[in-house]
TrEMBL record:
<dbReference type="Pfam" id="PF00557">
    <property type="entry name" value="Peptidase_M24"/>
</dbReference>
<comment type="similarity">
    <text>Belongs to the peptidase M24B family.</text>
</comment>
<dbReference type="InterPro" id="IPR000994">
    <property type="entry name" value="Pept_M24"/>
</dbReference>
<feature type="domain" description="Aminopeptidase P N-terminal">
    <location>
        <begin position="57"/>
        <end position="196"/>
    </location>
</feature>
<keyword id="KW-0378">Hydrolase</keyword>
<dbReference type="InterPro" id="IPR001131">
    <property type="entry name" value="Peptidase_M24B_aminopep-P_CS"/>
</dbReference>
<dbReference type="InterPro" id="IPR052433">
    <property type="entry name" value="X-Pro_dipept-like"/>
</dbReference>
<keyword id="KW-0482">Metalloprotease</keyword>
<keyword id="KW-0479">Metal-binding</keyword>
<dbReference type="InterPro" id="IPR007865">
    <property type="entry name" value="Aminopep_P_N"/>
</dbReference>
<protein>
    <recommendedName>
        <fullName>Xaa-Pro aminopeptidase</fullName>
        <ecNumber>3.4.11.9</ecNumber>
    </recommendedName>
</protein>
<keyword id="KW-0464">Manganese</keyword>
<dbReference type="InterPro" id="IPR029149">
    <property type="entry name" value="Creatin/AminoP/Spt16_N"/>
</dbReference>
<keyword id="KW-0645">Protease</keyword>
<dbReference type="Pfam" id="PF05195">
    <property type="entry name" value="AMP_N"/>
</dbReference>
<dbReference type="InterPro" id="IPR036005">
    <property type="entry name" value="Creatinase/aminopeptidase-like"/>
</dbReference>
Length: 564
């Protein structure tokens, strides 16, 4: 790897910055220069941090969640979770760091190069007896913190995150963990896209390598296996034909997978009973990349009150963005400006980021489901689809509104819009505890199919898929497509209901429908008796949208001059 491609883990600086620093040093050292007598700076790391928000998930929340995982571990089991890798954007610039949501959920730790172990029975770690949870973190470093920001360090993690045991990551390899004593070693995806920093002997790359080596994980165990196990468990019996075809195809790229006992047994199975046995071997395999994911699916899908407070905040901020943009929108605006307005509102209300790249597409671009370019210059009066979600302290909203930039729907736009709205109403009405996860989807599909037939856009019912090619729902939380079992709905689930109709130019229907793309997406909390629409503050009916668009905006006067 080229040296410039990495942020310097130790000092956070790069060749470019080092050269700048060197130039400064040479100047400062020139005879007679005043800088020569300048006192040394105290390490930033030691200075008190200015105030920051305090409404994050509490250490007690994370601790309780860890206990819930431990309860479900098998006897003599251990769960191993890794922090997310730092991902490179280009040259020496990385993407903004985003923690592995499972890791965040169980720790609150928001830095890279860390590993968490949860033990079913108390163990001895780093000489400390009776340890049930151990976090290894990146160390504090005055130099690194001057360049890239504060670190919690192991002492900080232990005190502030209330971990029973925490140590620096460099001590993971020598912590004396007796891996041979575990009957089962559970993990989720092993990070596969780590980069080894040769100057940091305990970065994520090394932590994963240490785990592989000390736990005796078979050398050909790839991260893909976790995905395969998940697929086998979820669909291996109900949809054996497709899964078998998929697996056989995968084996061409991953021949090592053929040696996996579960995969081998599954492919050799001739009956569903044999397939079931292959998927759930008895005794279970020692290295288990599937079960921990299932535990996390169940836990994360049911939101606690603390999580709901943050999720509600994220959704409210997102609907505030939708409302403000509706008031500001004009046909001469471009998609990027509209995106910027949403994201400004997010920051204004303390949401650190967006939970996924904002989708802001007008007309033809509204027909691209996960459109990200957002570079159309003038919207004119093509419907603009705005699928935008604020992320507040880790929790993301996912709200879509589709509106006419002029403030008034044309007759054709209105007909499609009202059809999607009726489909969404039907989908939302199907949300209640005990309902099949697909119930909202099925209800919305029925309405869309009947409506498209009635408008003459399709000739046969099943052709609705042409214009409504996705499902309506996914779980929502720390991930926009959050963890969950996709089983029956439960109180505490938060799911989206998001039907859409997308009719690109050239579609086999009357051209008056072309370039109309509509999605309406709301965030629905399943309650004890039914549901609550968390995003109800985002205008949704034609009347409410047109009324909101006629209102003045608080940002109206905030007109930036042209850049000549
Ligand atoms: N924003 C992505 C989705 O709606 O699933
Ligand atoms: Mn969604
Ligand atoms: Mn969305």
């Amino acid at each position: 790897m080229r040296l410039q491609q990495r942020a310097d883990e130790q000092a956070g600086n790069t060749i470019f910055w080092r050269l700048l620093g060197l130039a400064g040093l040479l100047l400062a050292a020139a005879p007679g220069s005043r800088a020569q007598q300048a006192p040394a700076l105290p390490p930033l790391a030691m200075a008190p941090a200015p105030p920051r928000p305090t409404d994050f998930l509490s250490p007690a929340f994370h601790k309780e969640r860890r206990e819930r995982v431990r309860e479900q571990l098998p006897p003599h089991g251990v769960a191993v979770l890794f922090a997310a890798p730092v991902r490179n954007r280009a040259n020496d610039v990385n993407f903004i760091y985003h923690q592995n949501p499972d890791f965040y959920y169980l720790t609150g730790y928001d830095e890279p190069n860390a590993v968490l172990l949860l033990f079913k029975e108390p163990r001895t770690v780093g000489g400390q007896v009776g340890v049930t949870e151990a976090l290894f973190t990146q160390p504090r470093s005055a130099a690194a913190e001057q360049w890239t920001g504060r670190r919690l360090g192991s002492a900080g993690a232990k005190a502030q995150l209330q971990l029973q045991f925490a140590a620096d990551n460099k001590d993971f390899a020598s912590a004396g963990i007796k891996w041979a004593d575990f009957d089962q070693i559970l993990f989720t995806e092993l990070p596969a896209d780590t980069r080894d920093d040769p100057r940091d002997p305990a970065d994520l790359h090394n932590l994963v390598a240490t785990f592989r080596e000390q736990s005796g994980l078979p050398a050909n165990y790839s991260a893909d296996r976790t995905v395969v196990y998940k697929m086998l468990k979820r669909y291996g019996v109900s949809n054996a034909k497709d899964v078998t075809a998929y697996l056989n195809n995968l084996l061409k790229d991953l021949p090592g997978l053929a040696e996996d006992p579960s995969v081998r047994a599954y492919l050799a199975a001739r009956t569903d009973a044999e397939r079931q046995k292959a998927i759930s071997p008895n005794p279970p395999s020692r290295y288990d990349g599937a079960t921990l994911g299932e535990i996390m699916d169940e836990l994360r899908a049911v939101k606690t009150p603390e999580e709901l407070a943050l999720l509600r905040r994220a959704v409210r901020i997102s609907t505030a963005g939708q409302r403000e943009v509706m008031r500001l929108l004009r046909p001469d605006m471009g998609e990027m400006e509209v995106q910027g307005l949403h994201e400004y509102v997010y920051r204004r209300y303390g949401a650190e980021f967006q939970g996924y790249p904002s989708i802001v597409g007008g007309g033809a671009n509204a027909c691209i489901l996960h459109y990200e370019a957002n570079d159309r210059l003038r919207l004119d009066n093509d419907l603009i689809l705005m699928d935008c979600g604020a992320e507040y302290h880790g929790y993301t909203a996912d709200v879509t509104r589709t509106v006419p930039p002029s403030g008034t729907f044309s007759p054709a736009q209105r007909q499609i819009y009202e059809l999607v709205l009726a489909a969404q109403d039907a989908g939302i009405a199907a949300c209640k505890p005990g309902a099949d996860f697909q119930a909202p989807n099925k209800a919305a599909q029925e309405v869309v199919a009947a409506g498209l037939l009635k408008l003459g856009i399709i000739k046969k019912k099943e052709e609705f898929r042409l214009y409504f090619p996705h499902g309506t729902s996914h779980y929502l939380g720390l991930d926009v497509h959050d963890r969950g079992s996709y089983g029956p709905l439960k109180a505490g689930n938060v799911i989206t209901v998001e039907p859409g109709i997308y009719i690109p130019a050239g579609a086999p229907c009357d051209p008056k429908w072309w370039n109309i793309g509509v999605r309406i997406e709301d965030d629905i909390l399943i309650t004890a008796n039914g549901y609550e629409n968390l995003s109800a503050e985002g205008p949704r009916t034609v009347a409410d949208i047109e009324k909101t668009m006629a209102e003045p905006s608080a940002l109206e006067a905030w007109k930036l001059p042209e850049l000549k």
